[in-house]
Amino acid sequence: MTIKNLNHKQVLSALPDRDENAHKGNFGKILLLCGSEGFTGAAALAAMGALRCGAGLVYLGVPRSIYAIEAVKLTEPIVFPLPEQDGKLSRDALPGILGMLDSMDAVLIGPGLGQSEGTRAVIQAVLEAAKCPVVLDADGINGICRHRDILRERHYPTILTPHAGEFQRLGGEIGGDRLTSAQRFAREYGCILLLKGHHTVITDGIESYVNQTGNPGMAVGGSGDVLAGMIAGLLGQGLSPLNAAACGAWLHGAAGDLCAEKMGQYAMLPTDMLEVLGRLLK
């Protein structure tokens, strides 16, 4: 098993070249299933994270009751309403979602999604049907905690981005050796695991990265939503799942470090990280 660190030059070299004749369809079609009543910010931050990392087309499916809010917040993503129950996605959303999957290059499920019978049904159905990489974050992770064997059954890559509490709910062990615990889980369930925290660990169980960027000022609601969107955006552009997760973590932390330099750790916000990403992607 190998353990690596990334630097800025390596991250930039992993990004795909942009042909002068390219169009938006060449840079990935990403489907995001995010948000619920009271959690509109998570969906917006994830969508902008994907776009700021270069995704060509970002489709954001949200419960119908928050569609108007998201449509006002967001001008670049393609926001569309889906059937809901009590402010969260319902089973009735599945025909519309499943009909889109074959044309997508990556899917993100979870930021602000909430937990309900309907959201769990959506998560399970997408994992079973998607023939592209899927990122599970936040409630996307919570939705499979009791049915994590579904990860083993997938024939396409799955990236999980838990913090320590979510990892424990998945059955992972949190102790002194986070790397070993993450590697063991990734091998057992055939996934890419990004275990958040000081020196975030990214692993497929064999090859691993330990991220060196980032600071405590990033410990604020919405920061993880930005990261999840960034990873989905990089996946859609053709990076391998492990590279997309590792490069996303490096860029996310480096953006946080730029913000801390500029305004200090107390005042920085996830939206500030989105604003400075462009300085890292030149």
Describe the overall structure.
The protein is α/β, with parallel strands linked by helices and 282 residues long. It has one domain: UDP-N-acetylmuramoyl-L-alanine:D-glutamate ligase, CATH 3.40.1190.20. The chain has twelve helices and twelve strands. It has a ten-stranded mixed beta sheet, sandwiched between helices. Strands 5-6 form a two-stranded antiparallel ribbon. α2 packs parallel to α12, α4 runs parallel beside α5 and α11 crosses α12. The longest helix has 23 residues. The two termini are 32 Å apart. The relative contact order is 0.16.
Tag the structure with descriptive keywords:
282 residues; alpha/beta; UDP-N-acetylmuramoyl-L-alanine:D-glutamate ligase; 12 strands; globular
Radius of gyration (Å) = 17 Å
- Largest sheet, spatial ordering of strands: 1-12-11-10-9-8-7-2-3-4
User: Got a strand count?
Assistant: 12
Hey, roughly how much beta strand do the residues contain? 15-25%
Cα end-to-end separation: 32 Å
CATH topology, what is it called?
UDP-N-acetylmuramoyl-L-alanine:D-glutamate ligase
Mean pLDDT: 96
**Outline type:** globular
